[in-house]
Design a protein that fits this description.
heterodimer, A: mainly alpha, 2 strands, 74% helix, flat, B: mainly alpha, 9 helices, transmembrane (chain A), membrane (chain A), ABC/ECF_trnsptr_transmembrane (chain A), transmembrane helix (chain A)
Chain lengths: 264, 190
């Protein structure tokens, strides 16, 4: 059981969570446009705005059934950033308004700036998490294929997605084989540094050993005989979603562009 | 720019190498990333454009699959690919000593690109161990940009030199039948 748990914890966990919510059913390009709009909003909104948008994204994550995974990742990422921002901007950076708070000097404007950065990063992270937890990479690729992305670009995105799992398995196999031969992964830093090439070199050599074969397979399938590939089971799309995408992109550009024009 | 099928397959393998090697490094618990070995390998074998594409896609895929924060640093991965490719073009991966210097140059340039992202987007912190060094440097009187630059430069120097050396050693040991169709590699032959 312990080895099973260990093996599970070794696996890189895909953030995508299967579901039937409106975001899961949306065309991946619509979700991508929503992400772009939220990212641009996070850049221009004040702290209150980014906090509201973050809370809204958390609510949507909970409604769509991805809340647990998204919130866990949000906390894992944001807690250390929050602590570091408080220390760096509240205590360490020299500002005019330092005031004594017990044994330490603390800056209100520093904390205010730290909070602004914290909420901006949290908002961007939550927007990205909402996208990656509800959009499967393979569906994203199909949507891109449907829009006529060149075959070479499609291959460069799709192939690694398919290869990561087998290569991770290979890496695990190499690690276990080397451990049997006495490799020490928990000793001093010198022992661990010495273990690195023993793990890296076989894996990279393996990754490169079948390049010729895979290139021949691509050529044999007339991979680039036509400029665009046909998608059999493309993600569903609708006129409404097309207009939503246009609106979100327009808003994203206006949000970023208008403040700049205002300053000019 | 259109790449032949063999180059495309190499680029895809390099993206996977970047991602999986990052995981192996986590197993040995060393303060390293080594997540650009595939990028530098492609820079040596194919050139700067292919390497920049590999770096960018590896970072974006890593962000899409496992860690969204990583995606914010895709310009750094892009610049690592471009810099390594340009250095390879001028023979800086032709022997071990030049490769070590090339690793140091890649480190300096990638640090310069990462500073605005860390300072202006993340307020100077990233939630990693580097923040302790940044905090220490701030405490002894450096300003935020200097502190971020210095802490990241020190942390990245070993990482980028090891990355360059590993990529160099692998490229030099690849069989001729594999590299014969990669004319760019001639600039790095010792």
């Amino acid at each position: 059981m312990a080895s099973l748990t260990k093996k599970k914890s070794d696996k890189p966990s895909l953030l995508y969570t299967a579901g039937e919510s409106f975001l899961h059913r949306a065309n991946p390009l619509t979700s991508l446009c929503l992400l772009l709009w939220m990212l641009s909003a996070a850049i221009v909104l004040p702290t209150e705005g980014t906090a509201t948008l973050t809370l809204a994204a958390i609510a949507v994550a909970l409604v769509t059934g991805v809340g647990k995974k998204a919130l866990k990742r949000l906390l894992i990422t944001m807690v250390p950033i929050g602590i570091a921002l408080t220390v760096v901007h509240g205590l360490l950076i020299d500002r005019q308004d330092f005031a004594a708070l017990g044994p330490v000097q603390i800056s209100a404007s520093g904390l205010d700036y730290g909070l602004r950065v914290f909420m901006r990063v949290a908002c961007m992270l939550m927007a990205t998490l909402l996208f990656v937890t509800t959009t499967h990479p393979a569906d994203m690729l199909k949507a891109l294929d449907q829009r006529g992305v060149p075959a070479g670009i499609g291959y460069l995105i799709a192939s690694p997605l398919l290869l990561i799992e087998p290569f991770t398995e290979r890496a695990r196999g190499i690690r276990d084989a080397q451990r049997v031969r006495g490799l020490n992964l928990t000793g001093s830093w010198k022992a661990r540094a010495a273990a690195l090439p023993v793990l890296l070199v076989p894996l990279i050599t393996l990754a490169l050993s079948d390049l010729d074969h895979r290139a021949s397979v691509l050529s044999g399938r007339a991979f680039r005989a036509k400029p665009h590939r046909t998608v059999i089971n493309a993600p569903p799309d609708s006129t409404l979603q097309i207009w939503v995408r246009r609106l979100l992109l327009l808003l994203a550009v206006l949000q970023l562009g208008l403040p700049l024009l205002w300053r000019l | 720019m259109k790449f032949d099928n063999r180059t495309l397959v190499l680029m895809a393998a390099a993206i996977v190498i970047n991602i999986v090697v990052g995981q192996i490094v986590a197993w040995v618990k060393l303060p390293l990333f080594l997540d650009s070995i595939g990028t530098v390998l492609v820079a040596i074998l194919v050139g700067p454009i292919a390497a920049a594409i590999v770096g960018t896609l590896a970072n974006l895929l890593w962000g899409l699959l496992f860690d969204p924060v990583a995606a914010a640093f895709f310009p750094v991965a892009l610049v690592i690919g471009l810099t390594a490719g340009v250095l390879a073009r001028y023979g800086w991966f032709a022997n071990l000593w030049k490769t070590i210097v090339a690793g140091a140059i890649i480190c300096v340039i990638s640090t310069i690109v990462s500073i605005p992202i860390i300072v202006y987007m993340f307020g100077g912190v990233t939630g990693s161990g580097t923040d302790f060094a940044t905090a220490y440097l701030l405490a002894i009187g450096q300003n935020l940009i200097q502190s971020v630059a210095l802490s990241n430069l020190v942390q990245n120097m070993g990482d980028k030199i090891i990355t360059a050396v590993v990529a160099f050693l692998i490229a030099q040991r690849l069989p001729r039948n594999l590299t014969s169709s990669m004319p760019f590699f001639a600039y790095s032959r010792s």
